[in-house]
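Q: Okay, next protein. This is EXC6B protein from Dicaeum eximium. I've checked the sequence twice, so it should be correct. Can you predict the 3D structure?
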Amino acid sequence: RSVYDGEEHGRFMEKLEARIRNHDREIEKMCNFHYQGFVDSITELLKVRGEAQKLKNQVTDTNRKLQNEGKELILAMEELRQCRLQQRNISATVDKLTLCLPVLEMYSKLREQMKSKRHYPALKTLEHLEHTFLPQVSHYRFCKVMLENIPRLRQDIRELSMSDLKDFLESIRKHSDRIGETAMKQAQQQRNLDNIVSQQPRISGGRKSKKEFSASSELEVKNTSPMSEQDSGILDVEDEDEEEEVPGAQDLVDFSPVYRCLHIYSVLGARETFESYYRKQRRKQARLVLQPPSNMHETLDGYRKYFNQIVGFFVVEDHILHTTQGLVNRAYIDELWEMALSKTIAALRTHSSYCSDPSLVLDLKNLIVLFADTLQGYGFPVNQLFDMLLEIQDQYSETLLKKWAGVFRNILDSDNYSPIPVSNEEVYRKIVGQFPFQDAELEKQPFPKKFPFSEFVPKVYSQIKEFIYACLKFSEDLHLSSTEVDDMIRKSTNLLLTRTLSNCLQNVIKRKNVGLTELVQIIINTTHLEKSCKFLEEFITNITNVLPETVHTTKLYGTTTFKDARHAAEEEIYTNLNQKIDQFLQLADYDWMALEPGSRASDYLVDLIGFLRSTFAVFTHLPGQVDVHSTMSGKVAQTACMSACKHLSTSLLQLLLEAEVRQLTLGALHQFNLDVEECEQFARSGPVPGFQGDTLQLAFIDLRQV
């Protein structure tokens, strides 16, 4: 810096040049000093070059020899390298195949399961294949094809399982009748067993109730895995502890298709779809089952088949309810049962109304009770069915009344209206056994003798008792109290007496050509039937165990019925007598202008008086007049005689005073007087005993005065 900053640049260059020259001289001195050594070195180097050439030639020869010798080794090494490469490839292939073979085996197993219709295991295999095996080898093309096929296989399994379900639904639709029949047989056996047990001393630790047994069997069923491939035997557990008398209702159906399909849809995440489809199809089947055939009312088998199908349907649903988790629930079952109950009751009301045979109605009632008891055993409310049975009871009573109307008509039409003759003690006791009749005087009389009544009395009395038994049969198993049964029987019996029997008696009394003797016998018969009403009261009390003094007990109106019939017969007697008198009076032919009277009363009047005498003589000598005030020989005979005399007197007076008779002679009056005297003589003769003084003659007093 000082050189460049000062002005001594030239001087510095000079000094530097001088320095360089000094160094050059020193270098030259040094080279001169070592030159010999340099020459020696070159000489040595030339020698080395010759030796190096020799060495090169030796190395070249050696290399040539080595190359010749190493060719085989190189070939061997190449073969070894190729072998090692193949070995690595084989090892890698084995490893890959080890991963691929389980996939292929699982896929083969899947196809085999699909072919053998083991859909649920196939679905589980598909799940393992998709989530466990295929992810390890997903880069292979065949695996990609498998992955693409998995959704289609799932859909195939879904469709096939649904097809199995449809087959199952069709099967249970066909077998509902048999299932219901079996269930109702079991209920009948249970009821018979309960009846036997109730009649024997109670034994502790008795047989389980149906419901308890059902619950225990259902628990056993639940413990059976529905996922096993052999779940078709799911119901066999129930038979182990039961007798072999009647197979279990569920033993007739293999429920495994339902369980499999349910689990398949659950795994596929479509459980709600399955539940909806199942319930929809079963609702449709329920509507078909509840549609009664048009001719169901014609035979009991028609009703039985109808009930069997309904019971079979609900037994299946109850089993499904207790063996699946939520496929059906209690609300769904209750809804179906409400619909079934309303439709069944409507169908029964309609079809039972066509039935006119009381035996068929009674059999129908027993079938309905068994139907109700069967479903009640499965937990279904059946009170409405028993309420409807009370309605059918009214119809049953009507059919009984129609039947008994025919029975009574036949009895009354075939009766001879003559006292029953008995020739020996056996016949006497037989009739007394049929009809409660006691008469000390008749007991003392020797054989042969006669009962005061005709054959229709014991026959009618026996038929009334048969009617009561028929009513009692209907009340069995209706869960009615004794009071209700008693009230039902008494009301029906009252209808029989006041309507059916009363109409039959009235028809007999009112029919044409009925004789006076028959009418008198009817009066005697109804008198004895009236007295028997208290025995009918006792009969009903004995079979129902309800005392007549019980509050609200219905009384029998038989007394009124027989009194009305008797009064009608009496009126018919009076009317018939008056008609006979009118017929005789039509023969009267008075000559009001006659100059001289005849020597005796008119022929028609003599004949009329003779008819009246014979008629009242027959009445007076009829057997069985125990109470003179209550039989034809007493008050009725007197009333009839008084009525006949009054009618005769009035008719004769009308003949005398009729408008066409404008004038008459004394001779005609004398002839008329003879006829009146004949009538007065008849009255004085006492044709019927029991009149006091001239009571009967007073009937002619107005005529006498005129």
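A: Here is a summary of the prediction. The chain has 22 helices and two strands. Residues 201-244, 623-633 have pLDDT under 50 and may be disordered.
Q: Noted. On to the next one.
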